[in-house]
Amino acid sequence: MSDISAARSDTDELARRRSLAAARQSRETERGALLQKLIQTENKALELRDWVARQETKEQDGLSPEMRRLIVWAKELLCDMERFLLPAELSELLEARDLFPETDELADPLGDPPPLRPWGR
Q1: Is the pLDDT of residue 1 over 60?
Q2: Cα angle at 42 between 38 and 44, to 5 degrees?
Q3: Confidence of residue 115 (pLDDT cuts 50, 70, 90)
Q4: SS (H, E, C) the chain
Q5: How do residues 56-100 score in pLDDT, each as one tens digit?
């Protein structure tokens, strides 16, 4: 093998590894965003559940029709949030997005490649 073809092969391999690193970084960003959404949804569901419970303990006869409709709407919203947080729903979502594969196709046994522009050049 000539030196030129070996250098080209090394360059191709480095490009492949950089592509894998970029895909890993993208997946990591998506994982973090999903986790943040789960935490926010769970917190919102807790707040909404408490609010609905407080409203239901109030005198129902004294509530306006608009307020009763608001409570009904809030309960529907809460049901949607709770459905999203169900383990079966989450598993389906994780599987569809392939965020935590059993065999990681993006793994690089050599670790992340060196940056394209070291030292900020």
Answers
A1: no
A2: 115
A3: confident
A4: CCHHHHHHHHHHHHHHHHHHHHHHHHHHHHHHHHHHHHHHHHHHHHHHHHHHHHHHHCCHHHCCHHHHHHHHHHHHHHHHHHHHHCHHHHHHHHHHHCCCCCCCCCCCCCCCCCCCCHHHC
A5: 888 776 788 999 999 999 999 999 999 999 999 999 999 999 999
